[in-house]
Amino acid sequence: KGLKGVEIKLITSRSYEPEKTRYCRHELLHISDMLDPVFGYDPDTKVGQNPGEETLILQRYRVLWSLTVDSRLTVAGKEPMLRKEDRFKEFRSWYRKIPAPQLKSVFEGLWQTSFFTHSELIEMASDTLRVMGSKLELARSTAIEAERMTRELEIAHEIQANILPHEHPRG
Q: How far is Cα 51 from Cα 23, in angstroms, rounded to an integer?
């Protein structure tokens, strides 16, 4: 098996450049994943049946992994390398086989998932149906839950407006 090695090169300047901070944070989270035994990074993973297929799978892998890294940075209150909207555009360009009506739901399901293993990312990069199936169901259940909560709030507001006195005595 290959050895794990990491190298980040930066050209420094005297002025503060926010994009370098975003870049470093993003790349260091990739490195953290690579060193995490739960992630299971394997630099010797072979993908694809030919060079063209290998390139497609590796590009999709990069897109999915970067998407999850930026999602985690956003949840942590840190500025991501790319905004969510830009990650969606990138995702859309590499997953053209996903029907347009489901594309946003699949992306949202991926964005909301805080962690994937190396092998899960490889599987999703290799198989469009796998990425659709797992994340579309999560996105649907999240949307159903949000709709249920919205309806419960509407009912609570109705009860408050129609049952409770409009003016409360001041004490």
A: 29
